[in-house]
Amino acid sequence: SVMLLLNGPNLGILGQREPEIYGTETLADIEKAVAEEVSGAGWEVRSIQRESEGELVSAIHEHRLSSVGAIVNPGALMIAGWSLRDALAAYPQPWVEVHLSNVWAREQFRHESVIAPLAGGVVVGLGAFGYRLGARALLHLTGADK
Ligand code: DQA
Questions:
Q1: Do the annotations mark residue 77 as ligand-binding?
Q2: Which residue, by CA, sits nearest to atom 8 of ligand 1?
Q3: Keywords, A to Z (predicted)?
Q4: Which fold has domain 2-142?
Q5: What are the residue boundaries of the structural domains of the chain, listed by start?
Q6: What is the value of ipTM here, to two decimals?
Q7: Residue 101 assigned ligand-binding role
Q8: Catalytic-residue membership of 99
Q9: Where in the chain does DSSP place strands (E)?
Q10: What is the pLDDT of residues 55-74, one digit of tens each?
Q11: What are the pocket residues of ligand 1 if the criterion is a CB atom closer than 6 Å to any ligand atom?
Q12: Is the pTM of this model over 0.95?
């Protein structure tokens, strides 16, 4: 089975991007960590990072039926990513939202996520480790941990 690891704008430069906020681990490190968490269930990770909302929407459609679930860090698309939100609403598998930083402790404009009401759950503020938790949550939500 294939799970999606979706990351939105500005998340491809993790490790170099405001490391005091987002940590020093790279997206490659995160991909490895997530793969490690789900390998026991026989899952593979398809990691897709895009700077633009439309490309993320296309990726979600493309993997609609061929994936078992997704971890989604929408980046700033959390604020007004309505077409991402609609694509996820039409995505028939469980998915979990992850944010590296504690968005609640930051600027007001990060206090709401347009995709959060649809998520199976949300992990916030635990850095790269949050993706591991998201992966474990996904195994739980899909029953793959049984
Ligand atoms: C983020 C939080 C967002 O507000 C921000 O725009 C990002 C990263 C996080 O992982 O903490 O790009 O999603």
A1: no
A2: 75
A3: Amino-acid biosynthesis, Aromatic amino acid biosynthesis, Lyase
A4: Rossmann fold (3.40.50)
A5: 2-142
A6: 0.99
A7: yes
A8: yes
A9: 2-7, 44-49, 69-73, 95-99, 122-124
A10: 999 999 999 999 999 999 99
A11: 10, 73, 75-76, 78, 99-101, 103, 110
A12: yes
